[in-house]
Specification:
Oligomer: single chain
Distance between the termini: 72 Å
Membrane topology: Multi-pass membrane protein
Helix content: 55-70%
Strand order of the largest sheet: 2-1-3-7-6-5-4
Strand content: 15-25%
Keywords: Cell membrane, Membrane, Transmembrane, Transmembrane helix, Transport
CATH superfamily of the largest domain: CorA soluble domain-like
Organism: Amycolatopsis carbonis
GO molecular function, one term: cobalt ion binding
Radius of gyration: 35 Å
CATH topology of the largest domain: Beta Polymerase, domain 2
Structural class: alpha+beta
Shape: rod-shaped
Largest sheet: 7 strands, mixed
Family: Belongs to the CorA metal ion transporter (MIT) (TC 1.A.35) family.
């Protein structure tokens, strides 16, 4: 089912009207039309393409999935590809939803590849700032981009919180190494997926802001600048998180190496201490005559030697922090 809206002189006059009436409304230069498709058929795209004069390459990109975020300019319209993103704290995974949009002088046509993109939230943003609707398509495009970028920003923030929790887990007294590795890998995978949709948005919004595009008027320019600022902050934050995840992994490996060195020192120290009585008793266990052979004095000499040497080694290792 398609969603439709029409604004006349900045006022919402009708919504959810049949798609066939779009051309009738566009005859009035004072109107702005929004049309939304979710998983459209080829016939749906063909009909609106013929009606609005859309370029065949843009229509082809709108029908295909897994496109790169971009903003292309054609003779009669512009074409946008973007992704919404949501980070699930429970699973640690990023969910993406692809959106294509055709931007003409009087119309905004959005094409959702699945129902994961919450278009109702975009409509609520439009309703909450209805005083800007006089700017026409720029008003609609701003609400769409603002929703997408805010979703990116929220996802980056949630991912940052998860990485901080991972840092705390690294410095536990007895960390679960398997769980650490699993969470670290999952967060790195989510961060990579998020970077692929966040970083290209800098180019997208920057292209929209270019004056030769003639898309943004003086009223909407500050609002688009605010969106661009959020895009830059989300991009820079994403890059810093990438370095932070790598640092967490390196720290985890260093701590593992330090713990292993400590264990090896302790094991080696105890082995050295245990070697003393083994060596002494082995010497006195020789089946040949020697001073103290088969006498009580020989037993006490060997016992005292074992105790003194063992205590001496223990004190020496303890002083060097090997035990």
């Amino acid at each position: 089912m398609a969603h439709t809206r029409v604004y006349r002189d900045g006022v919402l006059v009708e919504e959810d009207f049949p798609v066939e009436q779009v051309s009738d409304y566009l005859r009035d230069p004072a109107t702005t039309v929004w049309l939304d498709f979710c998983e459209p058929t080829e016939n749906d795209l063909a009909s609106i393409s013929e009606e609005l004069g859309l370029h065949a390459l843009a229509v082809e990109d709108a029908a295909e999935e897994h496109q790169r975020p971009k903003f292309d300019r054609y003779d009669t319209h512009s074409f946008l590809i973007a992704y919404s993103a949501h980070f699930d704290v429970d699973t640690g995974m990023v969910t993406k939803s692809e959106l294509a949009a055709f931007v003409t002088k009087q119309a905004l046509v959005t094409v959702r590849k699945d129902d994961g993109f919450d278009i109702e939230a975009v409509a609520q943003r439009w309703d909450s700032s209805a005083d800007l609707a006089k700017s026409g398509v720029a008003f609609l495009l701003h609400g769409l981009l603002d929703y997408i970028v805010d979703g990116h920003f929220d996802s980056v923030q949630a991912l940052d919180d998860q990485i901080e929790a991972l840092e705390d887990l690294v410095f536990d007294e007895r960390p679960d190494q398997r769980e650490l590795q699993r969470r670290s890998f999952r967060l790195r995978k989510s961060l990579t997926a998020l970077r692929r949709v966040v970083l290209p948005m800098r180019e997208v919004v920057n292209t929209v802001l270019r004056r030769d595009q003639h898309l943004v008027d003086s009223v909407m320019m500050p609002y688009f600048q605010d969106v661009y600022d959020h895009v830059l902050r989300a991009s820079e934050w994403t890059e810093s998180l990438r370095d932070l995840v790598a640092t967490v992994r390196e720290t985890q490996l260093n701590l593992q190496g330090n713990r292993l060195n400590t264990i090896m020192k302790k094991v080696t120290s105890w082995a050295a201490i245990i070697a003393v009585p083994t060596a002494v008793t082995g010497f006195y266990g020789q089946n040949v005559p020697y001073p103290g052979f088969q006498t009580t004095s020989g037993f006490w000499v060997s016992t005292v030697a074992i105790v003194l040497l063992s205590v001496g080694l223990y004190a020496s290792f303890k002083r060097r922090d090997w035990l």
